[in-house]
């Protein structure tokens, strides 16, 4: 049944592209513009650099008190904390990508990787403060009104999965490296630095190209949905908003809704992330981690964000 629906969707999209070439061309240009002008220059350097950091064993430099602190406060190993921090700083889908890569390389266990998916893949701080706060909400809300509700929702979600789902067993046991073994590897690591850089660059381009493909497809899909006569107008508007995060936020900001409703809708959508982000996240997991923890956590976090906003405003 799923394959039949997928096949029907592809056929419907192809018919739309052939029947509306100008609309499809404009939508594809918008998607590629978003990818080339925003995603490529902001994410690609960090994808390359984080790939390099993962291969120089940066967590070996963390003192024992720091490791205990990571485990006590967040239920994470040093490598898990690394994925969490970069996920928060860089936004979708870097946190999920790092969790997947760290699991594949054996630096964290599968359970910690799936635990990370529940709270480390979110909009970046820069995105929330600039695009959401200034572009969409016109600077009417201070930073605390943008960050605190989302942070509290993620915190509650993290605690729920840590203690009720994974029963407190989330952090991978850290194996202290042998100093003699590290000394023996220094020469070979120095010789392979150039090769490592090449691999990280190619991996970064592969990931960013894959994300661009999803943005392109969802950009073309949006006008297809908006012109479909079979979908009711109300459901159509909701679907278009959750299709892609930046496009959805722009639609909400330009709507005739009351100011408070725009704020509530924009914050809730930012917590959810959109269907395009979900597809990108599933893509970067490469089948190494289950996608279910991410989707269930996003649903819980979205509901919690809305509840926190309704209580606090």
UniProtKB/TrEMBL annotation:
Domain of life: Bacteria
Entry keyword Transmembrane: yes
Transmembrane segments: 72-95, 146-165, 261-279, 291-311
Keyword entries, A-Z: Membrane, Transmembrane, Transmembrane helix
Annotated protein name in UniProt: Sporulation integral membrane protein YlbJ
């Amino acid at each position: 049944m799923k394959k039949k629906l997928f096949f029907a969707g592809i056929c419907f999209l192809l018919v739309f592209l052939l029947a509306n070439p100008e609309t499809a061309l404009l939508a594809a240009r918008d998607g590629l513009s978003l990818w080339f002008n925003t995603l490529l220059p902001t994410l690609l350097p960090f994808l390359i650099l984080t790939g390099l950091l993962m291969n120089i064993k940066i967590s070996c430099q963390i003192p024992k008190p720091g490791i205990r602190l990571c485990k006590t406060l967040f239920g994470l190993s040093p490598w898990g904390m690394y994925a969490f921090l970069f996920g928060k700083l860089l936004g979708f889908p870097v946190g999920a990508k790092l969790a997947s890569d760290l699991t594949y390389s054996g630096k964290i266990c599968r359970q910690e990787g799936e635990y990370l998916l529940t709270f480390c893949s979110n909009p970046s701080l820069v995105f929330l403060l600039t695009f959401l706060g200034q572009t969409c909400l016109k600077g009417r809300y201070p930073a605390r009104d943008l960050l605190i509700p989302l942070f509290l929702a993620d915190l509650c979600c993290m605690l729920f999965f840590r203690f009720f789902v994974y029963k407190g067993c989330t952090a991978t046991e850290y194996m202290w490296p042998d100093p003699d073994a590290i000394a023996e590897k220094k020469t070979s690591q120095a010789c392979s630095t150039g090769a490592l850089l090449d691999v990280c660059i190619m991996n970064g381009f592969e990931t960013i190209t894959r994300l661009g493909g999803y943005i392109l497809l969802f950009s073309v899909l949006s006008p297809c949905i908006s012109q479909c006569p079979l979908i009711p107008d109300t459901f159509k508007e909701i679907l278009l908003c959750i299709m892609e995060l930046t496009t959805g936020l722009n639609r909400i900001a330009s709507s005739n809704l009351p100011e408070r409703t725009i704020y509530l809708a924009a914050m809730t959508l930012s917590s959810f992330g959109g269907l395009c982000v979900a597809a990108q996240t599933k893509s970067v997991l490469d089948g190494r981690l289950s996608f279910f923890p991410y989707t269930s956590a996003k649903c819980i976090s979205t509901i919690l964000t809305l509840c926190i906003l309704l209580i606090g405003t």
